[in-house]
Amino acid sequence: MAGRKQFDIATALDAAMLQFWRAGYADTSVDDLSRATGLNRSSLYSSFGDKDTLFTRCLERYSTRYGDKYDAALSCAADRPLAAVRAFFDVTLDRIADPRLPDGCLVAQTVMATPVLSASVAERAREAIGFQHTRLRAALKAGRLNDEAAESFATHLAAVNQSLAVMSRAGTGTERLRAVVDVTLGALARTLDAGD
Question: Domain HTH tetR-type spans what residues (predicted)?
Fold first, then answer.
C-alpha cells in the first residue's frame, strides 16, 4: 500500500539509539544512522525528522527503558532502603555487563557533550540526568531519611551511578565497579543505622 511504512519504528529507534550510544551525538552522522537502521536518508527524515529530533526520541527511549528499571528497583525503598539502592545499582551494573550494549550511559555521554548539542537536546539531557536524582531522593525519603540526608545521598548516589558508566567506558572491570558500589552502600548503611 502506498505511503505505508515498511519497517518497524521501534526496531529502527533501537538501532539509532545504539549508534548514538556507541559513537555519541557529534560523531554520529546521518549516514551512520542510515547504515545502523537500514533506512535511507529520506526515510529517516520523513519518519523521524532531523538528527536532533531522532536523537531526542532515542534519548527518551533510553531514559524510559532504564528509568522504568530504576523505578522497579527502588520500589521497595520504604521497607528496605538499602536493598532498594543496591537493586538500583544492579540495574546499572547489569547494563554495563551486557555484551550486546555499548559501554557507558547514553545520558551521561550526552550531558558531557553539552557544548556541541543544540539547546533543546542539551536541556533534554539535563532533564534526564535530573530524573535520576529525583527518583533516588524520593526513594530515600520513603526509606525514612530526613530531607537533608535524602538530598545529600541522592546527589551522591546519582554521581556514583554516572561515574560507574564513565568508568566502564574507560575499561574498568565489573569487579572494581562493584567495589565502588559496596563502599557507597556501606556509607548509606551507616546513615540508615544511625537513624539520620
Answer: 6-66
Selection from 67, 59, 50 nearest residue 13 by Cα:
59
State the total domains in the chain. 1
- Domain span at residue 91? 58-194
Under a CB-based contact definition with an 8 Å cutoff, are residues 50 and 64 in contact? no
15 φ/ψ angles, rounded to the nearest 5 degrees: -65, -40
pLDDT tens-digit series, residues 47-58: 999 999 999 999
- Contact between 129 and 112 under an 8 Å Cβ cutoff? The reply is no
CA distances from 13 to 31, 48, 93 (A): 15, 9, 23
Three-state SS sequence of 83-152:
HHHHHHHHHHHHHHHCCCCCCCCHHHHHHHCHHHCCHHHHHHHHHHHHHHHHHHHHHHHHCCCCHHHHHH
Average pLDDT, the chain: 92
Residue 53 lies in a domain: no
For the entire predicted model, the pTM comes to 0.89
Q: What is the per-residue pLDDT across 122-147, written as a single tens digit (0 to 9) for each?
A: 999 999 999 999 999 999 999 999 99
